[in-house]
Automatic annotation (TrEMBL):
GO terms for biological process: small molecule metabolic process. This is Zn-dependent oxidoreductase, NADph:quinone reductase. It comes from the Archaea. Keywords: NADP.
Length: 318
């Protein structure tokens, strides 16, 4: 079968499509024929060597959606022919940019027949991230204001919809070209993150009770200044907080709660994915697939996911 691999760390050019052996399911695993694999920024961190891989060559990719073609020992939840989607692969084990993948069952959930494989692959990692941030960590309540930085991104555009589905009031920062689409997805207001009066504009819309932050070092102080008393601030971004706070006092007087998280630590990803499947088939969360790529175009997809401004997700279709 074909799989995208890198034999050394480096830029997108190190990605090659290789012929490799078909995987066998281990204990507690199934093999999935991949219909679609999501493309995420984290895939590029493993490729670059910023995040460790067990050995080289290595297949990147966290997300998949497809059909079970082989079932390992001690697997009761899944059978041959089941439609499934999953996330969390490509971290400590081989990833999903391949025609077939052996996946542990706790990284998978059943996918309803009327859901598209590309949508499911687009939703898995970003939906799990948004769920862990807004449900597990922030405990969003109806009518609360939820500020999502990078609202047009893979995580952001799903977080806006999830907040809306929870009865909350999403606000988003994004490039102006994506503001109309974000309002269509449920954002009450969208703000250009480049404007000089960003904090004043957010405050005018109302102090957020929750912030989902993809760029913590840029917005540490802004979040503290605009947040409501007792706000919960969940940081998922990869930036280093070089600046820190100019005024730590506001964080204390408002008794803010900061939470940093990694999607890979989600305790029961399969349960979260099962909820996401429900939201997907009800139409409460509709991932936007901006573009699809063949395995041979994985390098272009990884360039685009870091460099291009688009709303939604990129997906590989083997
Ligand atoms: N901790 C975790 O578990 C976890 C999980 C998933 C993702 N992440 C990280 O979270 C970040 C976002 O992931 P993603 O999948 O959503 O990435 P993505 O699809 O590439 O989206 C990035 C978004 O950031 C926006 N952006 C760029 N500069 C910005 C700024 N200065 N202020 C506000 N927004 C800005 C972009 O907006 P425009 O295109 O409109 O300019 C784009 O919408 C990445 O760093 C990723 O590695 C962490």
């Amino acid at each position: 079968m074909r799989a995208v691999r890198f034999h050394e760390h480096g830029g997108p050019d190190v990605l090659t499509v290789d012929d490799v052996d078909e995987p066998e399911p281990g204990h507690g695993e199934v093999v999935v024929e991949v219909g679609a694999a999501g493309v995420n920024p984290v895939d590029t961190y493993f490729r670059e060597g910023a995040y460790p891989v067990p050995s080289l060559p290595f297949v990147p990719g966290s997300d998949l959606a497809g059909t079970v073609v082989s079932v390992g020992d001690d697997v009761e939840r899944f059978s041959l022919g089941d439609r499934v989607f999953g996330t969390g692969l490509g971290n400590g084990r081989s990833g999903t940019y391949a025609e077939q993948v052996a996946a542990p069952v706790d990284s998978l959930a059943h996918l309803s027949d009327d859901a598209e494989l590309t949508d499911a692959a687009a939703l898995a990692l970003v939906g799990t991230t948004a769920w862990r941030a807004l449900v597990h960590h922030a405990g969003v309540e109806p009518a609360e204001r939820v500020l999502v930085h990078g609202g047009s991104g893979g995580v952001g555009h799903v977080a806006v919809q999830l907040a809306r589905a929870m009865g909350a009031r999403p606000l988003a920062t994004a490039s102006p070209g994506h503001h109309d689409a974000l309002r269509d997805l449920g954002a009450e207001s969208a703000f250009d993150y480049r404007r000089d009066d960003l904090a004043a504009a957010i405050s005018e819309a109302g102090a957020p009770d929750v912030v989902l932050d993809t760029h913590m070092d840029r917005y540490l102080q802004l979040n503290a200044n605009v947040a409501a008393d007792g706000a919960r601030i969940v940081g998922i971004g990869n930036d280093t907080a070089e600046g820190g706070f100019d005024d730590i006092g506001v964080t204390k007087s408002k008794e803010l709660r900061y939470q940093f998280m990694s999607m890979f630590n989600t305790p029961d990803p399969s349960a979260v994915l099962a909820h996401l499947n429900e939201l997907l088939v009800r139409g409460d969360v509709e991932p936007v697939v901006h573009d699809t790529y063949a395995l041979e175009e994985a390098d272009d997809a990884q360039r685009a996911v870091l460099n291009d401004s688009f709303l939604g997700k990129l997906v590989l279709v083997p």
